[in-house]
Specification:
The complex is a heterodimer of chains A (330) and B (231). Chain A is an alpha+beta fold. Chain A is built from 7 helices and 12 strands. Chain A has a 6-stranded mixed sheet with strand order 3-4-2-12-7-8. In chain A, strands 5, 6, 9, 10 and 11 form a 5-stranded antiparallel sheet that branches. In chain A, strand 7 (246-250) and strand 8 (257-261) form a beta hairpin. Chain B is mainly alpha-helical and 231 residues long. A two-stranded antiparallel sheet of chain B has the order 1-4. Chain B is elongated. The relative contact order of chain B is 0.13. Classes of the chains: A alpha+beta (330), B mainly alpha (231).
């Protein structure tokens, strides 16, 4: 018998066997046969020998698998140690860099019909009782040459009791007198009014459509940074030296504070808002002036802004100090 | 009777499968820590709430409440590993041709119905099958599609501004979150059925997913021919 004949014979017998098996069960053709599924089989050996070989294989792979599982368990336990939380913060930072690399100020979140707008109160940190809205002025610091502006003030301080539940490792910043600019609400309102009806997305997972009126933060910042006056957001990836990298926003009592990257705060859907759903902001929603945006979660949309600081240092952030993502960007 | 060792699962499939197990578990667990902060979903029929996701005893037993920040840090850490492992798995399936064993084929849906009826002990006859039966084909392909769905819906709720087109395409933020949640529930259901089936299938089947091999009866015809030849 030639080799080829042998193969043909084997194939014939196998087909016959398969057909018989299928027939005896009253079945159609076998799926494996239809699809020509190949089986990988070793040489035929006695049952005892097969068992022995299987055992040897099993012992090896179970040892490797078991060791990997143990390693994984200890690796995870190590990762979850409080002192190693910085690794999660690094991943937040990595995610931020990836996100920033794709950031386009022309990307806009959808706007909704004005009738869908509603309200939901959440988060009162930094909104202490000892606050007089009539005496409120917006402070701006961190500018290289503040004296050139008519709003210049040689001395500004935070007001009100700082009674926020601050995390233990970050003592409150000293309330030193600093020079800067002072703006009234009327000053803000003189800038081009912008209205948007957008979803406010809370980090807890809910959304609330709200109608906001205010001014674009980019229009506000254009007063100090001529590069923004064209109305177009400069390519911040290529021209980082024109502006500071970050913006810090703090409530008048320093109870709540957020840090922003410049890209997100200059986005056209980031507003300094003074009206909500057609009415002046209520105290619980951040009167007299708050930040609203489609670029970040609600935790970043600080109410009752007391001071805005332009800075190249990554600013402190209330929730980032409590293990949340500093960037929290959309 | 003669026996043969049969190679059942390639090394890469086994590693990717077992790495996926803790990664998916971590994604689901951290997802629950996040979901707790706004647990609005329930099964309702005509306004009557049949089951709330999740009841208080469930949260308390597992120690879920007030761990949102932890959930977020875990979710956005392990998402890369989960997605990366899944992507390598799909690439491997395509490159190695292993996809042929798990992709549904013409007639799979009909036969899968009979497989299900058989597994539920309603009918005795089991439809013909290859390496996997048709219910397995549908389940294993389906779970890959679900994985892709989780990544896509996840991206849509993670970056609803930068991926606004995607979020809108999937029905808006609130809807996408709902889809993302239900995909997770189906992952859990898949897991439960999978584990039950593995237990029923027995030790040798389970072992083959670790070692890659199983012991098969040698082909009677082939053995007979060999015996004739050697004689």
């Amino acid at each position: 018998m030639s080799e080829k004949d042998e193969e043909v014979l084997v194939e014939k017998v196998r087909e016959l066997e398969n057909a018989k098996r299928s027939e005896s069960r009253g079945e159609g053709p076998n799926t494996a046969v239809i699809l020509n599924e190949k089986r990988e089989l070793s040489e035929a050996v006695s049952a005892g020998e097969a068992k022995r070989r299987m055992f040897n294989r099993s012992r090896r792979t179970f040892l490797i698998g078991g060791a990997t599982a143990v390693l994984g368990y200890f690796g995870y336990s190590w990762l979850r140690k409080p002192e190693n939380f910085y690794l999660f913060e690094r991943m937040f930072r990595f995610n931020e860099n990836v996100s920033q690399a794709f950031f386009e100020s022309s990307d806009l979140a959808p706007e909704f019909s004005r009738e869908l707008a509603g309200a939901r109160v959440n988060g009162m940190i930094g909104l202490g009782e000892d606050f007089n809205a009539d005496e409120w002025q917006l402070q701006v610091t961190g500018l290289t040459d503040p004296q050139q502006f008519p709003q210049f003030s040689p001395s500004m301080t935070f007001t009100g009791e700082d009674n926020a539940p601050r995390s233990l490792d970050t003592p409150p910043p000293p309330n030193e007198s600093v020079p800067g600019l002072l703006f009234s609400l009327e000053d803000i309102k003189r800038l081009p009014r912008v209205e948007m009806t957008t979803e406010l997305k809370c980090i807890e997972g809910w959304v609330q459509i709200v109608n906001w009126s205010g001014v674009r933060f980019s229009d506000f910042a254009a007063q100090f940074f001529p590069v923004l006056r064209t109305g177009e957001i400069p390519d911040l990836h290529r021209l980082p030296e024109i502006l500071t990298k970050y913006v810090s926003l703090v409530t008048p009592d320093r109870g709540y504070y957020v840090g922003w990257d410049m890209q997100s705060i200059l986005h056209p859907q980031t507003l300094l808002a003074y009206e909500m759903n057609g009415e002046p902001l209520k105290p619980e929603h951040g009167a007299p002036l708050r930040l609203v945006t489609t670029t970040k979660y609600g935790i970043k949309q600080i109410k009752r802004i007391g001071r805005i600081e332009f800075t190249n240092e990554r600013p402190a952030d209330y929730w980032a100090e409590r293990d949340y993502d500093w960037y929290s960007g959309h | 009777m003669q026996k043969q060792l049969e190679k059942k699962h390639p090394l890469a499939i086994r590693w990717l499968h077992w790495i996926n197990f803790p990664l998916l578990a971590l994604m689901i667990w951290s997802g629950m820590l996040i979901y707790w902060a706004n647990d609005i979903y329930a099964i309702r029929i005509f306004g009557y709430e049949l089951f709330k996701f999740f009841p208080a005893w469930f949260y308390e037993t597992l120690g879920i409440p007030f761990r949102l920040a932890e959930g977020i840090s875990l979710h956005f850490f392990f998402m890369w590993f989960f997605a990366g492992n899944g992507l390598i798995y799909v690439i491997y399936l395509i490159a190695s041709g292993e996809w042929r064993a798990i992709l549904p084929v013409p007639g799979s849906f009909k036969r899968a119905m009979f497989v299900t009826l058989h597994d539920l002990r309603i009918v005795k006859k089991l439809p013909p099958q290859g390496k996997y039966n048709d219910a397995q084909r549908i389940a294993y392909t389906g779970v890959i599609v679900m994985g892709a769905g989780s990544i896509i819906t996840g991206l849509a709720i993670y970056k609803p501004l930068q991926a606004a087109w995607l979020t809108s395409l999937l029905g808006g933020y609130a809807w996408v979150r709902w889809i993302h949640f239900w995909l997770t529930i189906f992952f859990v259901l898949f897991f439960v059925v999978h584990v039950v089936q593995v237990i029923i299938a027995g030790w040798a089947n389970f072992r083959s997913m670790i070692t890659g091999y199983d012991i098969a009866d040698a082909d009677a015809a082939e053995t007979a021919i060999k015996e004739v030849e050697t004689a």
